Amino acid sequence: MPPPPLQPGRFELSDSVKDPAREGSLDAPFRHPIAWRDDAYYDLEKVEAEMQRQFDVCHTCRRCFNLCDSFPRLFDAIDESPTGELDSVPKAAYGKVAEACTLCDMCFLTKCPYVPPHPFDIDIPHLILRYRAAKRRAGEVEFVREQLGKTDRNGKLAKPVARLANWATARENTPLRKLLEAIAQIDAEAELPKYHSKTATDRLKAPIPPNPAGPAFGLRKVALYATCFVDYNEPDTAVAAARVLALQGVEVQLVYPECCGMPQLEAGHLDDVAGRAERVAAHFASWIENGYDVVALTASCGLMMKFEWPLLLPESAAVKRLSGATRDISEYVVELSRAYGLAEGLMPVEGGVTVHHACHARAQNMGAKSAEMLRLIPDTRVELVERCSGHGGTFGVMKATHPVARKVGRPAARQVAAKGQENLCSDCPLACKHLGQLLSAETSPDAAASPRQAHPIEILARAYAL
C-alpha cells in the first residue's frame, strides 16, 4: 500500500491579520513572518513602544502569571510603580522581563486569548525575540553565551578529548567548576552536557538494514536529523531511533549537515539562523526529492524546522518543503503505528514511565506524541507531566539565570515525584536532565531514588530489547 499523506496539525503562518477577528472564536491562530531584513525591526525605540503596547494588554489580563518568570517580573514592576500602571514603569525594566523568557511559546500557544487573528495581535515570544535582535544590533552581545551557542565547534573540539572535558566540567569536580563559574559565570551547580569520542555520525556511518518482515518495509524511508545535541552529547538516542525504525522495516540514513540555530535564535542572531535554514534546507532537498521523510530527534530542532525557519524565510520553497516533510521521532513512530502497525516484540517497561511534555514539543501543536508512543508498550503505566522544566538552553546554566530555571522547574519536578515512576523521559534531553537534578536535590536527597532518565525513543528501544 502507498504511504499515507503527511498532514501535520499546525497553526497557520500568515503575513496579515485575518478579518473579521472574533474574540473567543475557533479561528486558527497564526504568526507573522519575522521581518529581520527590515531596518525598522531593529529600531529600539519602536521595539520598546511595541513592548509597551503588548505588555499593557498582558497587564489587563494576567492569565499567564504562572508560566515562567517573565510575567511575574512584569506584573511586579507594574504593581510596584507609582501609578500601578505600565506608563510609570521605566523601560529599563523591560530588559528584566526579556531576560527571563526562554522562547518556550507556551504563552502564545496555551494561554493568550489575544494572539492573531485577534486585533490585539499579541505574540510575546516573538516580541522578546525582536527586542534581543535590536539589542544585539546595538552591540549588546554576551560573550560566554555566544561561545556556548557554537555547538558544532564545541562538539568537534571536545570529541578527541571527551573524557578530559567531561571530567573537567563534572559537577563533582568542585574546584574546576568554581573556577569556571568565576571566569565564565556558568553556575557551578548546573549539570552540563557530556561529550562522546564516538558521535552519532560515527556510530551510524553504516546504516542499519531495514527488517524485511517489518510492517513498513519498502514503504518508508527516513533521513534522521541527528541534531547537534544528539550527535555530540547523546548519540545513544540516534542509535535507538535508527534501530526502532529499522525494525519497522524503514530505511534509515543519519543526516547531520549542521546545527539548526536554536541557540542563535535565542540570542537574536537572526541572519545567522536564516543562513543555517537555507543551507540545511538545501542539503535535505535531494533526500526529500528521493522520497525520504525527515525525522528530528529533539523537540527544539523540530520546532525550528517546522515553524521558525518558515517565518524567517517565508519565500523559500526549500524551507517550506522541509517544514512539511519534518516529523518529531515520537510523532513519526505513532504515524507508522497508525498506518501499518508496529513490529511485534514489545515487552513491558518495569516501574512505569513519566513523560515530561517539553514546551518545544507542545509548541509544535501535535499533541503529546511521546506519551502516545509509549502507551503502545503493553502493560506499562505511562503518566504525563505538562509543565515547563525551566531549563531553556543557556538560560539553565548561566549563574544569573540558573536559580530562575530551578524556581520555574520545581513545580514540574514535584509533579514528576508524585507520579512515583521509575523512568523519566522528555522530548527535550536538557529538560530531562534538569528535572532529574531537581528531583535529586530538592525532592529526594537520595540520588539513587531518582527515576532513570532517557529519551522516549530509548525507552521504546528498551521495550524492544534493542
UniProtKB/TrEMBL annotation:
The keyword Iron-sulfur is assigned to this record: yes
- The reply on keyword DNA-binding is no
Write out the entry's keywords from A to Z: 4Fe-4S, Iron, Iron-sulfur, Metal-binding, Repeat
GO function term, MF aspect, one: 4 iron, 4 sulfur cluster binding
Q: Give residue ranges for domain Cysteine-rich.
A: 222-306, 353-429
Please indicate which superkingdom the organism of origin belongs to.
Answer: Bacteria
> What is the protein's name according to its record?
Glycerol-3-phosphate dehydrogenase
Q: Which organism is it from?
A: Phenylobacterium hankyongense
Give the organism's phylogenetic lineage. Bacteria, Pseudomonadati, Pseudomonadota, Alphaproteobacteria, Caulobacterales
